[in-house]
Description:
By secondary structure, chain A is an alpha/beta fold.
Amino acid sequence: MTVATHPAGRTVEHLGRGPLDRDELAAVVARDIPRGSFVNLGIGQPTMVADHLAADSGVVLHTENGMLGMGPAAHGDEVDPDLTNAGKIPVTELPGASYFHHADSFGMIRGGHLDVCVLGAYQVSERGDLANWHTGAADAIPAVGGAMDLAIGAKEVFVMMTLFAKDGTPKVVPECTYPLTGLACVSRIYTDQALFHIDSGGVTVLETYGATVAELASRLDVTVHRLGDG
Amino acid sequence: MTVVTTEPDGAVAGIADGSTVLVGGFGMAGMPVTLIDALIRQGAKDLIVVSNNAGNGDTGLAALLAAGRVRKMICSFPRQSDSWVFDDLYRAGKIELEVVPQGTLAERMRAAGAGIGAFYCPTGAGTLLAEGKETRTIDGRDHVLEYPIKGDVALIGAHVSDTMGNLVYRKTARNFGPVMATAARVTIAEVRRVVEVGELDPEAVVTPCIYVDRVLDLSTAEAAA
């Protein structure tokens, strides 16, 4: 597992600016993916992380429908109906790519071979429980896809989301109220206003954007630590 | 012995009412659309369909659903931007749904094909999808007991077959094909072309012919019609 750490050696508050926009957030996640990692990027916002990986990062992207070495989205003549990502968007293959069937692809995931996966979320609990597959609403049609496999399988689960829902309620919570995807599986939460690390010691703020730790802590129902706190 | 045919209707002959049908494809990639269209004409009803999704748009699996032939869907991801056929059936109470995590869905079919009686899997432990299932803590981690999914029939799409029924796939259209081929009593593959025995590199065969019962050759005009 990653440890709660920051190159600055302390929690960094980026003040005099607003929250991260979606593109900036994707760049911050990309920055924190170790060189040479095997990585799965979830459908939606996490896909944007690919655009910010350095060309020499050595990161190999996995897509759960059966490919390692996935390249960028396909355009024009590159579009091939036989080559899509997990979101069913046409993509390209990079040199060194490989294809495999679904049982192998999920064996790769469940077997702990992926270094990092990046997922969206409705909520994350202070113990790292993840809720991202089902709103639980009576008229919702449940659809889980590979979320539960990725949540418990990857060595590191990074979550990307806004820190607060549209109604202002925090999405980092003492207990998830949405149906769970996986228990105690999230190690990092990347939000527009703060970056968090979660381990058995609780929730540690690594960085903030546009707010102080104290300001954010006052709006959360979970105890957050600063780096360097006893 | 594998039968190669150019007639879609012949390829799906004998599929009985009430069958469990494994349908390959991830979205439209690898979806055996010609076989599904033939199954609609063939008329089997009261089917249990196992597939990753519950139909996209109005063709393929969505058309089978729209024809009212499916009693129950077992899939990982029914809800999509273009799953309106399934959504309407589900909301009208006209179809049952069993949601299975994608990897568990694949592994349950792999188990069926490999003669495994059941397996313990950490995916979904402690969630709604594990409710009512036996769980066991193994090496400090909770696991859920999962049973195989066996098909009466598998309908899959592959790229090329030889006349013995050895299959190769193309890119991510491989997806569930190789697993489903092992998990059904009768496996029917639609392929873009059929080559003579000896033309496929044995090292490159993904689905060996032992798993394949019927091959529909789409390269002929009849199959394409």
